[in-house]
Amino acid sequence: MRPHASIALLFLALLTLASCNKSFEYQIQGTLDNLPEVKELYLISDMATGTPFDTIKVKDSKFDYAGKADSVTFCFLGNLNDSITLIPIFLEEGTIKIVVSSDPKKLKVSGTQLNDKLQKLNEAGFKYQDEIQSILSTVNDSTSEEEKASLEAKAMESMKTLATIYYQTAEKNIDNELGYFLVTNPAFLHEDQVMTLISKMPASMRKRPLIKDIEAYIRDNKMGLEGTEYDMDDDVAVMPDFSAPDLNGKMVSAMDVIKQNELTIIDFWASWCGPCMQEMPHMVQLYELYHSKGLGILGVSLDTDAEKWKNAVKLTGATWTHISELKKNSEIARMFGIEAIPFTLIVDKEGNVLAGGLTGTELEDFIHKELGE
Q1: SS3 per-residue string spanning the chain
Q2: 298 in Cβ contact with 267 (< 8 Å)
Q3: Nearest CA to 227 among 64, 5, 68?
Q4: For the chain: N or C, fewer Cβ within 10 A?
Q5: Is the link from the previous residue into 275 a cis peptide, with omega within 30 of 0?
Q6: CA 60/CA 170 separation, integer angstroms
Q7: How far apart are CA 10 and CA 279, in angstroms?
């Protein structure tokens, strides 16, 4: 199966979500928190290209926008030119109130039913991320191996608790667009959980093409890159080497990075990809938790704008090696047949491909199995 058939593809679908046949009006009222230089924000629903469908003007750190829609629409609000990361919101009937900040913890979307629920989930995410950071910060050179193991186990429990909250939120909202969004963006869900949630969806929702694609993929969950320049055997394949400039413009060989680690996650992403940006905090936690045990990450960006790429790396705190060709029709992506992101490959220090297409808890479980015991 080609990577574009994997769940990675599902993150990049155009998320226009039909929930009713009646048109409605909505309003967005927002303020900027200590961001006087920002004069525009963009509404984006087409994450395949990152092209905005409208621009919102900002005056005196405030903005007001009115729109009309025929169905609930999931989109992102932001401006990477001014280092404003993409904020997920539901365009639904009512007044949506937004606080925009360069500090992700100060971002807030509220005022309507689905946005209130998504905000609550985001707050839970920050709570447990802080808890994990607090646990990991106590590890130092004098910490014994036994103590390290105990602290890592506590951090893992916090991650599992967050995953449970994510699943329960999806389950409680499985008949509305929030549940649909969480199922089709399963950062913290196992495949069996995804299938269970799909089975609980209303029949009309299960007929949506994206849900059918997910079910088809999970039923035939076999990784392969047939028909591309790079083919994988059934058991194992050796990844071909490739090179691209890093953040400082220096050419970096993928194998030079890979051979330094026991395991390396090759993460294909881009600053304009909302799901990629949503996945980044989880990747940062995973890196901090397992880097000392031999985990490395090589970020391969499909960005074409250097400043947006660099700003996104800075915003997310992703301290690993990043490379990008900074051009359309990436030769590296074409080498692997990648047509949708985020997408990951996991390789050992010899470049043997061990897994691909894993994100969220599935990626976490794989790394824990290999390095956490």
Answers
A1: CCHHHCHHHHHCCCCECCCCCCCEEEEEEEEEECCCCCCEEEEEEECCCCEEEEEEECECCEEEEEEEECCCEEEEEEEHHHCEEEEEEEECCEEEEEEEECCHHHCEEECCHHHHHHHHHHHHHHHHHHHHHHHHHCCCCCCCHHHHHHHHHHHHHHHHHHHHHHHHHHHHCCCCHHHHHHHHCCCCCCHHHHHHHHHCCCHHHHCCHHHHHHHHHHHCCCCCCCCCCCCCCCCCEECCCCEEEECCCCEEEHHHHHCCCCEEEEEEECCCCHHHHHHHHHHHHHHHHHHHHCEEEEEEECCCCHHHHHHHHHHHCCCCEEEECCCCCCHHHHHCCCCCCCEEEEEECCCEEEEECCCHHHHHHHHHHHHHC
A2: yes
A3: 5
A4: C
A5: no
A6: 38
A7: 14
Span of 46-50, 82-86, 164-168, 201-205 with lowest mean pLDDT:
46-50
How close are the terminal C-alpha atoms of the chain, in Å?
31
Which of 295, 298, 294 minimizes the C-alpha distance to 254? 298
Q: Which residues contact 127 (CB under 8 A, 6 or more apart)?
A: none
Cα–Cα distance measured from residue 344 to residue 268, given in angstroms and rounded to the nearest whole number: 6
The token duo for 167 is: 């699943």
Res. 30: pLDDT tops 90? yes
Q: Name the residue with higher pLDDT: 270 or 224.
A: 270
194, 199, 204, 208 alpha-carbon torsion, rounded to 10°: 30
Structure tokens belonging to residue 152: 């890592």
C-alpha–C-alpha distance, residues 80 and 39, integer Å:
12
Q: By the 8 A CB rule, do 232 and 223 touch?
A: yes
Q: Tell me the residue type at 57.
A: K
Average pLDDT, the chain: 82
Are residues 103 and 126 in contact, defined by beta-carbon separation less than 8 angstroms?
no
Residue 224 has pLDDT above 50, yes or no: no
How many residues are listed for the chain in this entry?
373
Measure the CA–CA gap between 43 and 271, rounded to whole angstroms. Answer: 15
